[in-house]
Design a protein that fits this description.
The protein is built from 12 helices and 4 strands; from the N terminus they run E-H-E-E-H-E-H-H-H-H-H-H-H-H-H-H. It is an alpha+beta fold.
C-alpha cells in the first residue's frame, strides 16, 4: 500500500473552524470531492488552523483536482457564512508519500493523534472531528434515532440531508443553521452523527487492516503518537483547546448569540475583545488575533 499524507495550512494562520456546523460543512464537502475524483481516504482530521488527510489515488493530477475542489468549496462556504471574501488557504499543499506498513502506521498515528497533541482529547477515538469512532458505530456521540418517536423537525431534517447526499452535494451553513435551530440539544447531536454517517467516505476497512482490529488500532494510537518529519507545525502553548474556550467566553460572558456574531464586529471592537479575552482566558495575543482574523 502507498499512502499520501496531504496537509494544508491557512494564510497567516487564520482559523478554519469555529462551530460544529463548520466541521460538518467541511466533512460533507471533502467526502463529496473524494467520491467525485475517486480518491480513497483512510484518514480525515481537520484542525482549527490546518488540515490533515491520508489518501490513496492513482495519479498526482487526481489528487490536485481533489484538493483544489474541497479547498475552493469550503473557502466559499466559510466566507459566505461570515459575509467575507478572500483567500483562506495557502496556494500550495504538502503531500508526503508513505510506503511500507511501518511508515503508513506512523502517519496514521500522527493524523489521528493530532487532536491529542493539541490538547483537545486524551484518546484519538474520543475526538468527534477525527471521525475515528464512526468506524465502530453510526452514532457514537448520540442516542440512536428512533423514527417512530422522532419529532417532525428532526424527521424533516433527515429528509433534507438525504436529498443533498443523493444529489452529490456538500452541505452549507445556511441549511444546517436552519435545520439545527428547530432541534433540541439531544436532537442536534443525533443529526450531527447522522450527517457524518451519511456522508462518510473513510475506508475504515483499509485502516483497521493495518492493525488487525479496531481495539488494537486504538491501543496502538494511544501507545504511539507518531511523528512527521516532513511537516513543520507551529507549537502553540496550551494547544488548540484555547479556541473553544474563547468561543465559550464570547457566548457565556459577552452575551453574543453566536460566535459568528462576534466575528462580524468591527476591527476596533475585535481589538477590544482581544484585550479583555487575553486576561479572561489566558490566551496569547497572537492566538486571539488569529481567532478574530486581525
Amino acid at each position: 500500500m502507498k499512502l499520501l499524507h496531504i496537509y494544508q495550512n491557512t494564510l497567516d494562520g487564520m482559523l478554519l473552524f469555529y462551530t460544529a456546523t463548520d466541521f460538518l460543512v467541511y466533512f460533507s464537502i471533502i467526502c463529496t470531492a473524494s467520491r467525485k475524483h475517486d480518491v480513497k481516504l483512510i484518514g480525515i482530521c481537520p484542525m482549527y488552523d490546518h488540515l490533515h488527510n491520508l489518501a490513496q489515488a492513482d495519479s498526482r493530477n487526481r489528487v490536485s483536482a481533489f484538493v483544489r475542489d474541497y479547498t475552493r468549496d469550503y473557502s466559499i462556504a466559510l466566507n459566505t457564512s461570515f459575509g467575507n471574501r478572500g483567500q483562506i488557504f495557502n496556494h500550495t499543499f504538502g503531500c508526503a508519500v508513505k510506503t511500507g506498513d511501518k511508515a503508513i502506521r506512523t502517519a496514521c498515528s500522527y493524523l489521528y493523534n493530532n487532536p491529542c497533541e493539541k490538547g483537545l482529547c486524551i484518546r484519538a477515538e474520543y475526538y468527534r472531528w477525527s471521525f475515528l469512532a464512526y468506524a465502530e458505530s453510526a452514532n457514537p456521540f448520540s442516542e440512536r434515532i428512533r423514527l417512530n418517536i422522532a419529532s417532525m423537525p428532526l424527521r424533516g431534517a433527515l429528509k433534507e440531508i438525504d436529498a443533498f447526499r443523493k444529489q452529490g452535494k456538500g452541505l452549507n451553513h445556511a441549511l444546517l443553521n436552519r435545520l439545527f435551530s428547530k432541534l433540541s440539544r439531544v436532537e442536534k447531536n443525533q443529526l450531527t452523527d447522522y450527517i457524518i454517517t451519511q456522508y462518510n467516505c473513510i475506508d475504515y476497512k483499509a485502516l483497521i487492516s493495518l492493525y488487525g482490529s479496531y481495539d488494537k488500532m486504538c491501543l496502538a494510537f494511544a501507545s504511539n503518537q507518531g511523528s512527521e518529519y516532513e511537516i513543520n507545525e507551529v507549537f502553540e502553548p496550551g494547544g488548540h483547546k484555547i479556541y473553544p474556550a474563547i468561543s465559550a467566553a464570547l457566548i457565556n460572558d459577552f452575551g453574543f448569540g453566536s460566535v459568528k456574531d462576534a466575528l462580524r464586529q468591527s476591527d476596533d471592537k475585535k481589538r477590544d475583545l482581544v484585550r479583555q479575552l487575553k486576561f479572561m482566558t489566558g490566551a496569547q495575543e497572537w492566538q486571539l488575533r488569529k481567532y478574530f482574523r486581525l
